[in-house]
Amino acid sequence: MGDTITRAHLSEAVYQEVGLSRNESAELVESVLLEIADSLSKGDTVKLSSFGSFSVRQKGGRMGRNPKTGEEVPIKPRRVLVFRPSHVLKERINAALSGKAAAAE
User: Fold this and answer.
1) Does residue 76 sit in helix, strand or coil?
2) Rounded to an integer, what distance in angstroms lies between the CA atom of residue 31 and that of residue 18?
3) b/e burial code for range 48-85 (CB count within 10 A of at least 16 → b)
């Protein structure tokens, strides 16, 4: 498995690719992430071309079950974040996976 990408990694990538200062790169990454989070918290959909879309979906309440005790437990209605990858991203991931599979054989 690969490493986890952090804000610091994203800031460094912006610094390397765009040529902004490290502080400006960090501020840009923070600004973009804040805008995405604000839009999602308002219930808007965020679409990133060739990457995918994030949306918020309302889930209704239901009865669940504690797997250890078997006891029924009510699950409250809530909003959940949903990510749908674009076809471009899916193809890129599958191409990378099939390249690794061919290398392993």
Assistant:
1) coil
2) 16
3) eeeebebebeeeeeeeeeeeeeeeeeeeeeeeeeeeee
Helix (H) or strand (E) holding 31: helix 22-41
How far is residue 32 from each of residues 21, 29, 53, 88, 103, measured CA to CA in Å? Answer: 16, 5, 15, 22, 37
Both tokens assigned to 1: 């498995």
Q: What is the pTM of this model?
A: 0.75
What single string gives the DSSP state of each residue in 16-29?
A: HHH---HHHHHHHH
Counting DSSP H helices and E strands in the chain, the numbers are: 3, 5
pLDDT digits (tens, 9 = 90+) for 45-98: 999 999 999 999 999 999 999 999 999 999 999 999 999 999 999 999 999 888
Contacts of 10 (CB under 8 A, 6+ apart): 29
Joined tokens for residue 69: 């005790």
